[in-house]
What does this fold into?
Amino acid sequence: MIESPRIAIFDLDHTLLPIDSDYEWGQFLCDIGAVDRGYFELCNKEFYAQYVAGTLDATEYLEFTLHTLSEFSADQLKQMHHQYMRDVITPAILPAARQLLARHKNDLLLMITATNRFVTEPIARALGFENLIAALPEFSTDGRITGKLIGTPTSGIGKVTHLTEWLHQRGKTLASFERSYFYSDSHNDLPLLEQVSHPVATNPDATLTAHAQARGWPILKIFK
It folds into this structure.
């Protein structure tokens, strides 16, 4: 059972990291020659622009990225992700993010991200999270990623759906907590920001900044 009286929920990209881990994973694959750079960069940039604009088809994007993962064995993926963590993610975990997390050291911590679990699980561990909600890749019987998504995306209203189910499995709702925080940079996360008792616009985009100002929400900028 969950015993903490408060829950602190965090988005990942541009919230705790000053980068987009999913986009940077794609760039990393290009840099090490694991994918065709021209084709992949074109697709990756187009999808990212759609995300920023709020028009992204999350399932289409996730299955594009997961299909890329399906081309490699589990051992190959493990080795590549180890290098990705060392070269890309670890330098991007800044003291300001750890200081923010330290404010909630006595709270139940949960990361919820639209990025798939393969990319984000090691990042969550590196940041000290035991609890993660992320898009779930399907695995074949021999342990390879198939390229398909299990269930619904963990983005937009999907974050509310997945969080509600995660809490339900533990006999809780958001109302069970004295305080519920959600830190996010993106207007795409407004559905969940509207649900918690203490929304915090963190390194917010222009749309979220305007919304936060209109609602009197705190605005936190931990990255330059």
Q: What stands out?
A: The longest strand covers residues 108-116.
